[in-house]
Specification:
single chain; alpha/beta; Rossmann fold; Dihydrodipicolinate Reductase, domain 2; 2 domains; 7-stranded mixed beta sheet; 6-stranded mixed beta sheet; 13 strands
Amino acid sequence: MLKKKEKYNVAIMGATGAVGTQFLSILEERNFPIDELRLLASERSEGKNINFRGKELKVMVLSKDSFEGIDIVLASAGAGRSKEFLPYAVKSGAVCVDNSSAFRMDEDVPLVVPEVNSHAMARHKGIIANPNCSTIQMVLPLAVINKLASLKRVVVTTFQSVSGAGQQNILELETQVKKLSEKETHYGLGEHIVPPDMVKKFQHQMAYNLIPHIDVFKENFYTKEEMKMVEETRKIMELPNLALTATCVRVPVYYAHSESVNVETYKKVTRAEVLENMKNFSGITVVDSPADNEYPMPIQVEGKDNVFVGRIREDESIENGLNVWIVADNLRKGAALNAVQIAEKLINTTREA
């Protein structure tokens, strides 16, 4: 249980990664009450200096002894490392917010998006799980619709940026785009294809391409990423029987995920009702003006904290249906920001107790 303090000792697991870097930026932006900040990473980052609030902090190697005196752990070092090291953090008395998939579906671990189900945090036993990036941004608008009309079925197609797969994948796309831009081409057949040795992290060329495959395939022919969206959404929204199907697509965008979501509800709800309630929901920004060609796009949402919603319209093919377009920065609300918001809820709840 987190103790009441004015300032807290915080450790970041995976401090030099894409999400770890965002942790640092967001903690500084939001003036999180930190006494000591401990930066933890693998051996290859040992001794690296990182600036935080005007001070140079050295990165230390993550070990089972890294958590002595730490109050809060923000973890984004992968599922394997979370499973290995977070039990030591909990044993040392820390509360851990884990960005990996390691504990998300554990019955004893709350899976939290603060605007939707912060009440679930009360039952934590030292670990609180941060959902998958594509799930986080979807459940905010779904929570609005569910309150209005009760969800019956959800069909989602995601368009996920390469940053969701890590820093090396950003560099791979960048390298491929640069290679193709150097060629004199009229983009005839084959002229937009990179050499095979430039395809490494992804199974296929990413530049100027779409890959309808994120994570490994499961026996049911869905990918692990798609099933995460199904299972995590049901858990967060406390709707274990919600009918939900997903198709996850990797797209040649650097930052921010987009989603096309079709929703069927038990009761009729209008576009006007949804718009009004979305505008009044914490964490959502509505950008929806068809006459002005205004709707959320990744390039506008990059670096922003909220989930952006637009293209709201009633589905004319069924009686109680809606179509919604959702965009969010996957490294901020989809990862680091949501984790920091969980930590903020923790300390505010402690102070109010």
